[in-house]
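Q: what sequence does this backbone want?
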């Protein structure tokens, strides 16, 4: 049985204007990711990996083409959405993991992971935060502040936070780029297995061939010619 695409990217393009120079970062790119499946995005620095993820997050506006994300009872089209509805989409339906963890330094580990539930008035999911942290081997770190944790531990907290709302889409921008080999494979395992088990589509940018090979599909971006 082929699964319906949860995420559908159709002929999208994105450029930046640098003075008089136009930089075409994404040109006529199309792909689909089914629910519970994963796509890794590879390419040299400057090839547009972060730009693509920011488009998928609704942080940047498309020049042309469209992205659609299947939600419970509707299909969200990025092209026709205004900035406010893209912000709501991101807050409610998209998890994001960054290279440098981006935890809130003044909140404890548990408070960081609960944050998406608080912001969305989902008190029902607040208890889920400590369950997730337990599953990720962090049950004895709940009340610590992020700066007490190793990089690998901080990234596991960030993955738990991104998963809390069980979003249909999880984006990860070089999530293992700042970790040693052992922590890198631990974090990658958590990301891929959690998304698969919870039917979350995962799009992950990485420089690591090993991590990229864990995805169902690989996408290679090239440095754009000036
Ligand atoms: N806000 C911006 N304004 C102008 N150029 C940008 C901007 N953001 C990124 N770029 C350029 O777009 C290209 C792709 O960048 P990026 O998406 O960050 O690539 P990657 O994540 O693969 O390193 C690079 O040439 C970068 O310099
Ligand atoms: Mg980048």
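A:
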């Amino acid at each position: 049985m082929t699964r319906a695409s949860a995420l559908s990217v159709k002929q999208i393009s994105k450029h930046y204007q640098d003075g008089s120079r136009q930089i075409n970062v994404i040109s006529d790119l199309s792909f689909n990711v089914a629910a519970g499946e994963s796509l890794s995005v590879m390419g040299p620095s400057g090839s547009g990996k972060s730009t693509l993820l920011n488009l998928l997050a609704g942080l940047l506006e498309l020049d042309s083409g469209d992205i659609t994300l299947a939600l419970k009872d509707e299909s969200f089209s990025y092209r026709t959405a205004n900035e406010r509805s893209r912000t709501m989409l991101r807050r409610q339906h998209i998890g994001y993991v960054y290279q440098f963890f981006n935890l809130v330094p003044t909140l404890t580990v548990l408070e960081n992971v609960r944050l998406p539930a608080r912001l969305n008035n989902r008190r029902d999911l607040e208890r889920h935060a400590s369950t997730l942290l337990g599953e990720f081997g962090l049950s004895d770190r709940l009340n610590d502040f992020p700066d007490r944790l190793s990089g690998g531990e901080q990234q596991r907290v960030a993955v738990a936070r991104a998963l809390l709302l069980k979003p249909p889409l999880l984006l990860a921008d070089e999530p293992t780029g700042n970790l040693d080999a052992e922590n890198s494979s631990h974090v990658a395992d958590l990301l891929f297995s959690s998304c698969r088990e919870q039917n979350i589509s995962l799009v992950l940018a990485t420089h690591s061939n090993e991590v990229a090979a864990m995805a169902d599909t690989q996408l290679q971006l090239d440095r754009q010619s000036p």
